[in-house]
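This part of the workshop introduces the protein records we will be handling. To make this concrete, we reproduce a full record directly below:
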Amino acid sequence: MGRKLLLKKRERKKLVVDENYEFLPKNIFFRFFSAVLRVLAVGFMYLYNTVVFGMKVEGRENLKGLPSKGFVSVCNHVHGLDCTMVACALGVTSLYYPSRKGNLDLPWRKRLIHILGAVPIPPSSVKAFQNFQKAMATVLREGKVVHIFPEGYLKPYHPELREFKRGAFKLAYDNRVPVVPLVISYRQSTGWRKLTNRKPLLTISILKPLLPDPDLQEKEEIKRLLNASYHEMAERLESRPA
């Protein structure tokens, strides 16, 4: 009996993402607390990622001249904290990243990472997914960043780029915003880090933005954005063997 009650309690705590879910909370206290916490988190994680993982950022000059509207960033998914590395590399505290609903089911995680910009992807409801798309369009219209891992799932320290899904590139095309590819590559561990961490050190490179052409057919242009991002990222990753 006790086990059944515990399981039911856990089920009640799971996040419900339906048509009534508020993807972008309007509560002024939530928004203020979120803004403050994001600034603190990016500052702390920049230091933490640099010291612990040897994070090095390249290519910030490629962000110059971007339109005033927001953009969609993409990156290979190879580390549990790579989303924080993307935020640190881009120097933004207004980054939103769609996430599997299961990542937000735990009560403590649900609150924390939602405050820091995680937005659950609706698992089934068509209406909820439409609301999710409208929320992401609002984020981009406000000049903020939506980050998507087009490989879909985490594979720690994977040496090669994996197959991309098209969602990030469709989002960029639909909202007429650039795609900014980033890629995490590896360096051999050196110095004192050899004593504490056998994993390679991480370099995150910002590549040149890709602009969607609204005059081209949607299907072909999404495919072009996907293939161009994949090619540039794979080329950079292959040129940086650990």
